[in-house]
Amino acid sequence: MGFFTSLDARRRGARPRRVLLLSDSYRPTVNGVVTSIDELRRGLLEAGHDVRVLTVGPGRRTTFDGSVYRLPSLDASPIYPHARVGRLVDSATFADLVAWRPDVLHSHTEFSAFWWAWRLANRLDAPHVHTYHTLYADYTHYFFPHKGAGRALCAGFARQTLNRTTTVIAPTAKIEKLLLRYGVSVPIAVVPTGVDLTRFTPGAPSASLRESLGLTPGIPVILSLGRLAAEKSVTETIDLLARVRDTPWQLVLAGDGPQAGMLRERVEGHGMTDRVRFAGAVDPAQVPDYYRLADVFVSASRSETQGLTFLEALASGVPVLCRDDASLDGMVQGGDNGYRYREPEEFTQVMTRLLREPALRDRWADGALQTASGFGRAAFVDAVCATYDRARGSAGTARWAA
């Protein structure tokens, strides 16, 4: 049993291991990367480890609140909404981190934070673990007009960057295969991101939320939760629901993004304004309430790396109807907790059945809870800690003696 994978550090009397998590995106930003980092951080702290975060901040000076360092950064929203690029780590912060001597550097983005981790890992002779969260090839339309050239650029960038690490974590086997095709040669560990199973649970829908959204009692609610952007294929969801005409339904689009205006126009074009509610950006504290409103969770996205919203829906006991994608292998299982469609006709048939047959929804909801039970925070953190231990062996064992 390794240093990280052994039982709670405080119970076994060993010194807690020090983990530095590094990211160009962190709270108050809301996205899948931030959610994954927070789940990992909480789990490591619960296991008795010492955890700090190094990220960007909007200020002109570095701040540290005892657990999170925020470095000065530049606005990069023209490249990607809400993005920021951090500056170099100042000498005082670098010296403080070296004195703290983290046992592992775990980066979560491939830009400023990655190079902070790389520099510290080399200075401390510590393992550098990196989680590959984002399918950049699906986002090249934001900054690169030629699709083929953009994908080639992403492959080269990933290969040249990730091969500098000790170990890479891929949230799914789909990402592992992609990175191998890119030519990533360092060890890759497949570790699905977990969810907080105490937060995402079935429960009574919020009457006030239903009222604020103008939902009609007795009509099934379909939920789409995520960024309203091209890579999420929300247009496909709207177009497919337009085919489900003879059965009552109401759709909640929870999220905001660059396609919000266009999607409103598309809904109007289909004559569905009375069936679709645009909820806008959702306060993270309210996200579980949105799942509890839903009878079906729907998504047409093919840009997922970890499928967090799918897991949250399953943990909330909501059946999932989604576009078939390898990232969902082992998660969304047809006929058990949901269905992965390939053709429009499949979507129409399955959605119609779900809307008309409460017993089918209940059966798939039970399957959803069963599946989600294997994706809790504890299992996620255990797998990450096992990866840290393997990376420790690759990076050398001298520094890991208690």
Structure description:
The protein is 39% helix and 17% strand. It contains 14 helices and 15 strands. Strands 1, 2, 3, 4, 5, 6, 7, 8 and 9 form a 9-stranded mixed β-sheet that branches. A 6-stranded parallel β-sheet has the order 12-11-10-13-14-15, sandwiched between helices. The two termini are 14 Å apart. It holds the Pfam family Glycos_transf_1. InterPro entries: Glyco_trans_1, Glyco_trans_4-like_N, Glycosyltransferase_grp1. One of its GO terms (biological process) is carbohydrate derivative biosynthetic process.
Number of strands: 15
Named CATH topology of the largest domain: Rossmann fold
Structural class by secondary-structure content: alpha/beta
Number of H- or I-type helical stretches: 14
Biggest beta sheet summary? 9 strands, mixed
Intertermini distance: 14 Å
**Unreliable residue stretches:** 6-12, 397-402
CATH superfamily of the largest domain: Glycogen Phosphorylase B
Instruction: Report strand %.
Output: 15-25%
The overall pLDDT average reads 91
CATH architecture of the largest domain: 3-Layer(aba) Sandwich
Radius of gyration from the CA trace? 22 Å
Number of domains: 2
Q: What share of the residues lie within helices?
A: 25-40%
Q: Kindly provide the name of the CATH class of the largest domain.
A: Alpha Beta
H/E element order: HEHEEEEHEHEHEHEHEHEHEHEHEEHHH
What coarse outline follows from CA principal-axis ratios?
A: elongated
Keywords: Glycosyltransferase, Transferase
Domain Glycosyl transferase family: 210-368
Protein name: D-inositol 3-phosphate glycosyltransferase
Pfam family, one: Glyco_transf_4
